[in-house]
């Protein structure tokens, strides 16, 4: 469980075993609370057209579609997209396998959501490209929600790298992490085990200040930024475990 991962670690990370673990470990009520937050904070009208990127196995896309919205989910993981498609019968949702920067560019979405801490997957230059793609995807006046657990204000106060073990059903995960000071990033190393199967994988979350994120989004046409520390609407502050950012595309 050593070595420095590549900048494109996410291309190979999200195979069946990690995906199945994350599908199991998030309670359904968490997804409901997150989509309640999206609908309320963005004021989504009925039948809004929503882009979910990266959508993973589709938990947010499917919940949005169940509420009557027209949804497009984009993700690079073939396994996750396949699972999402199998779960979408009868719903107005399309799942596309593509890099998160290769979203539809038709300027027609009422809202775009980037949930599950994936906004930190990319290095700064690639993140600018991703933000620009989101700006081109959403209509003027449309909304954005970004979910980020790796904002500097969240991560650095009291940072401690302690091993932890997580279990769900027959899957056990040993997780360790370290902060790479030179790269301003968290390296999270996982050992997944299930029925004799063992998989080592490393995830990378780049750490940016809130100001950097806000400036990056402003450069791609987003304004009216609000910062929250959770789905209950509490303000984000130093040591908040999570940043939920909302914004509007104004140009």
From TrEMBL:
TM region positions: none
Entry annotated with the keyword Methyltransferase: yes
GO biological process, one term: methylation
Lineage, broadest ranks: Bacteria, Bacillati, Actinomycetota, Actinomycetes, Pseudonocardiales
Keywords, alphabetical: Methyltransferase, S-adenosyl-L-methionine, Transferase
A molecular function (GO) term: methyltransferase activity
UniProt-recorded name of the protein: Methyltransferase
Pfam families: Methyltransf_25
Residues annotated as domain Methyltransferase: 50-142
Keyword Cytoplasm set for record: no
InterPro entries xrefs: Methyltransf_25, SAM-dependent_MTases_sf
Organism this protein belongs to: Saccharothrix yanglingensis
């Amino acid at each position: 469980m050593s070595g420095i991962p590549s900048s494109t670690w996410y291309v190979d990370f999200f195979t069946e075993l990690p995906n199945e673990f994350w599908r199991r470990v998030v309670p359904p009520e968490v997804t409901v609370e997150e989509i309640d937050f999206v609908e309320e904070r963005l004021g989504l009208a009925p039948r809004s057209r929503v882009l979910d990127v990266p959508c993973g196995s589709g938990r947010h896309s499917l919940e949005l579609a169940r509420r009557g919205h027209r949804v497009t989910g984009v993700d690079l993981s073939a396994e996750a997209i396949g699972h999402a498609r199998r779960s979408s019968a009868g719903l107005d949702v399309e799942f596309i396998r593509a890099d998160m920067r290769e979203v539809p560019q038709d300027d027609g979405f009422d809202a775009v959501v980037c949930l599950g801490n994936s906004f930190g997957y990319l290095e700064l230059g690639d993140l600018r490209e991703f933000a620009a793609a989101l700006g081109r995807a959403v209509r003027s006046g449309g909304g954005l929600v970004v979910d980020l657990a790796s904002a500097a204000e969240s991560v650095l106060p009291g940072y401690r790298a302690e091993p932890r073990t997580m279990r769900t059903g027959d899957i056990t995960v040993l997780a360790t992490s370290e902060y790479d000071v030179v790269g301003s990033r968290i390296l999270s190393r996982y050992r997944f085990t299930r029925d004799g199967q063992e998989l080592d994988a490393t995830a990378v979350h780049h750490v940016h200040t809130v100001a950097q994120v806000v400036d990056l989004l402003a450069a791609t046409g987003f304004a009216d930024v609000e910062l929250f520390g959770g789905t209950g609407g509490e303000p984000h502050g130093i040591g908040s475990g999570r940043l939920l950012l909302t914004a509007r595309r104004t140009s």
